[in-house]
Amino acid sequence: MSRLPVVAIVGRPNVGKSTLFNRLVGKKLALVDDRPGVTRDRREGDASLLGLDFRIIDTAGYEDEDPDTLPGRMRRQTQAAVDGADVALFLIDSRAGIVPLDEEIARWLRGADTPIVLVANKVEGRSGEQGVLESLALGFGDPVQMSAEHGEGVADLFEALRPFIEREDDAFEEEEEDESPDAPLKLAIVGRPNAGKSTLINRMLGEDRMITGPEAGITRDSIAVDWEWLGSPMGPRKVRLIDTAGMRKRAKVQDKLEKLSVADALHAVDFAEVVVLLLDATLGLESQDLRIADRVLEEGRALVIALNKWDVSEEPSKTFNGVKAALEEGLAQVKGVPLLTVSAATGKGIDQLIAAAFETRDAWSHRVGTGELNRWFERAVEANPPPAPGGKRIKLRYITQAKTRPPGFILFGTRVDQLPMSYQRYLINGIRRELGFGAVPVRMTLRAPKNPFDS
């Protein structure tokens, strides 16, 4: 598919960048809050504006801080986004008027090679008129006047962007859901705060794409980045990496913004095919890790578990065996979830992790033929017949696979509403073990014949 033009949104904190981003992509993908500095990493999405299609980047608020501080690292991300964009939208808050930081950003942008479109946001009502007039002094001409929150001024923004991003109608093809083995792997990285999720993604990409640091909870939005894995024996393979906010115990999540971040991380799991639960090897497995794993499996996603910071673990063998035993006990519904060791700091183990993720997706997408499935089914029922509650026999007739991603099966028979969960687990475990589904979530639906006299 041809590359979409890229538009970056820049400005000081709390001028409405994430609100504009959400409006252009048509979804509430970026977190929005009254506090400044909510967005910390670059967030990207496909946008459409009155027929113009482009890639939009929501950046962190530009702050004049030391490069080694968290705001300073956020500023570097903003600069990288502008450098890679075809055009940048410079947002100001027309109600607040022009402040010194706006002037500082304007000086920086005037020296950039990227074309700039000035946007005066929050113009609803008369309170924004003075800010619009003041913005002329920034040196970018008349601003586009709009209200990102209420959708006013969209047509003017279209006219301002069109010269920079307009393409022929047939230049871009609609990206469709691709379930082929060559389709990009949608891989979400989840875990508790400070487990090293952003550091791991940066190591994969070979650049400081995600902001990292010793402060827990730096990542707030779920950020998706396209990447090509070069370590596959099959040649380069495409991966869509999704970095998420750290998930703490619910009782500890009191802040409204953190609640939004955790909800956003859980929402990201819904869009993933495979989820990597990243653990801190220096801390081992905690109950919160098991809760996250349970949530991933409940959503029907394939799960891989990785022990990070393996290079600084004091007793690596003891830690690995302890975590493995705890997983076998804590994730009894799915045995044999892949457990690997990695070091986000050095890159060791990353190729093995991505290889395991692709293998797990293959199992998650696997379909078995009806003949092979029912031959296995007959053997399983013969080896362990279903019980006869109340002396009445449960007759299991046949089984079929109804879907993949995750695998779903329909079991037909009489009195199946009385089939114990233990027997259903026996069948599901057999399907996983003997039919190539591995440690992925498997769903089973019981269905009785329509004829009530059928026995």
UniProtKB/TrEMBL annotation:
One of its GO terms (biological process) is ribosome biogenesis. GTP 2 binds at residues 191-198, 243-247, 308-311. Residues 5-169, 185-365 form the EngA-type G domain. PROSITE patterns: G_ENGA. InterPro entries: G_ENGA, GTP-bd, GTPase_Der, KH_dom-like, KH_dom-like_a/b, P-loop_NTPase, Small_GTP-bd. Keywords: GTP-binding, Nucleotide-binding, Repeat, Ribosome biogenesis. Coiled coil: none annotated. CDD domains: EngA1, EngA2. GTP 1 binds at residues 11-18, 58-62, 121-124. One of its GO terms (molecular function) is GTP binding. It comes from the Bacteria. The keyword GTP-binding applies. The keyword GTP-binding applies. GTPase that plays an essential role in the late steps of ribosome biogenesis. Belongs to the TRAFAC class TrmE-Era-EngA-EngB-Septin-like GTPase superfamily. EngA (Der) GTPase family. PANTHER family: GTPASE DER. Associates with the 50S ribosomal subunit. This is GTPase Der. It comes from Sphingomonas palmae.
